[in-house]
Specification:
It contains one helix and no strands. The chain is an all-alpha fold and 113 residues long.
Length: 113
Protein backbone atom coordinates (compact mmCIF):
# COMPACT_ATOMS: atom_id res chain seq x y z
CA UNK A 1 0.00 0.00 0.00
CA UNK A 2 1.10 3.46 -0.78
CA UNK A 3 0.97 6.33 1.68
CA UNK A 4 1.00 8.96 -1.00
CA UNK A 5 -2.25 10.86 -1.56
CA UNK A 6 -4.37 9.79 -4.46
CA UNK A 7 -4.08 11.95 -7.57
CA UNK A 8 -7.67 11.30 -8.57
CA UNK A 9 -9.91 14.31 -9.04
CA UNK A 10 -11.96 15.42 -6.08
CA UNK A 11 -15.63 16.22 -6.68
CA UNK A 12 -16.31 19.90 -7.25
CA UNK A 13 -18.33 21.86 -4.70
CA UNK A 14 -22.08 21.63 -5.12
CA UNK A 15 -22.33 25.18 -6.49
CA UNK A 16 -20.21 24.44 -9.58
CA UNK A 17 -21.12 22.06 -12.31
CA UNK A 18 -19.17 20.72 -15.26
CA UNK A 19 -21.55 21.52 -18.10
CA UNK A 20 -19.21 20.00 -20.72
CA UNK A 21 -20.79 16.62 -20.05
CA UNK A 22 -24.40 17.86 -20.02
CA UNK A 23 -26.92 17.16 -22.71
CA UNK A 24 -27.91 20.01 -25.03
CA UNK A 25 -31.37 20.13 -23.47
CA UNK A 26 -29.88 20.63 -20.00
CA UNK A 27 -27.68 23.41 -21.35
CA UNK A 28 -30.69 25.11 -22.90
CA UNK A 29 -32.57 25.00 -19.60
CA UNK A 30 -29.52 26.31 -17.75
CA UNK A 31 -29.01 29.14 -20.26
CA UNK A 32 -32.70 29.94 -20.11
CA UNK A 33 -32.46 30.16 -16.32
CA UNK A 34 -29.44 32.45 -16.60
CA UNK A 35 -31.23 34.68 -19.09
CA UNK A 36 -34.27 34.77 -16.82
CA UNK A 37 -32.05 35.70 -13.87
CA UNK A 38 -30.38 38.44 -15.90
CA UNK A 39 -33.77 39.69 -17.08
CA UNK A 40 -35.03 39.68 -13.48
CA UNK A 41 -31.96 41.65 -12.41
CA UNK A 42 -32.58 44.18 -15.20
CA UNK A 43 -36.24 44.54 -14.18
CA UNK A 44 -35.24 44.97 -10.54
CA UNK A 45 -32.65 47.58 -11.52
CA UNK A 46 -35.16 49.49 -13.66
CA UNK A 47 -37.70 49.36 -10.82
CA UNK A 48 -35.03 50.68 -8.43
CA UNK A 49 -34.15 53.47 -10.86
CA UNK A 50 -37.84 54.32 -11.26
CA UNK A 51 -38.28 54.40 -7.49
CA UNK A 52 -35.24 56.67 -7.13
CA UNK A 53 -36.65 58.89 -9.89
CA UNK A 54 -40.06 58.99 -8.19
CA UNK A 55 -38.36 59.77 -4.88
CA UNK A 56 -36.48 62.60 -6.58
CA UNK A 57 -39.69 63.87 -8.13
CA UNK A 58 -41.39 63.69 -4.72
CA UNK A 59 -38.50 65.59 -3.13
CA UNK A 60 -38.73 68.24 -5.87
CA UNK A 61 -42.50 68.53 -5.37
CA UNK A 62 -42.07 68.90 -1.61
CA UNK A 63 -39.37 71.54 -2.13
CA UNK A 64 -41.67 73.45 -4.51
CA UNK A 65 -44.54 73.28 -1.99
CA UNK A 66 -42.21 74.49 0.78
CA UNK A 67 -41.10 77.45 -1.35
CA UNK A 68 -44.70 78.24 -2.26
CA UNK A 69 -45.63 78.20 1.44
CA UNK A 70 -42.71 80.48 2.28
CA UNK A 71 -43.74 82.90 -0.49
CA UNK A 72 -47.33 82.87 0.74
CA UNK A 73 -46.15 83.58 4.31
CA UNK A 74 -43.87 86.39 3.09
CA UNK A 75 -46.73 87.99 1.15
CA UNK A 76 -49.05 87.65 4.14
CA UNK A 77 -46.44 89.27 6.39
CA UNK A 78 -46.03 92.16 3.91
CA UNK A 79 -49.83 92.60 3.70
CA UNK A 80 -50.07 92.74 7.50
CA UNK A 81 -47.19 95.22 7.68
CA UNK A 82 -48.90 97.41 5.08
CA UNK A 83 -52.20 97.28 6.98
CA UNK A 84 -50.43 98.19 10.25
CA UNK A 85 -48.66 101.09 8.53
CA UNK A 86 -51.96 102.36 7.09
CA UNK A 87 -53.69 102.00 10.48
CA UNK A 88 -50.95 104.00 12.21
CA UNK A 89 -51.10 106.71 9.54
CA UNK A 90 -54.89 106.90 9.94
CA UNK A 91 -54.58 107.15 13.75
CA UNK A 92 -51.98 109.90 13.39
CA UNK A 93 -54.24 111.76 10.96
CA UNK A 94 -57.14 111.42 13.43
CA UNK A 95 -54.98 112.85 16.25
CA UNK A 96 -53.93 115.81 14.12
CA UNK A 97 -57.53 116.50 13.14
CA UNK A 98 -58.63 116.28 16.79
CA UNK A 99 -55.77 118.60 17.81
CA UNK A 100 -56.66 121.07 15.04
CA UNK A 101 -60.34 121.01 16.08
CA UNK A 102 -59.36 121.63 19.73
CA UNK A 103 -57.10 124.48 18.64
CA UNK A 104 -59.84 126.08 16.58
CA UNK A 105 -62.28 125.73 19.49
CA UNK A 106 -59.76 127.38 21.84
CA UNK A 107 -59.13 130.22 19.39
CA UNK A 108 -62.86 130.74 18.87
CA UNK A 109 -63.42 130.80 22.63
CA UNK A 110 -60.57 133.27 23.13
CA UNK A 111 -61.97 135.54 20.43
CA UNK A 112 -65.40 135.40 22.05
CA UNK A 113 -64.07 136.70 25.33
Amino acid sequence: MSTQPSMSQQPAPASSHDWSQAADKDLEVHMSNLEGTERAKEVEKSQWEAAKSEHGAEEARLEWERKEQEEHERQEWERQEQEEHERLEWEEQERWEALAAAWQAAVAEAEAV
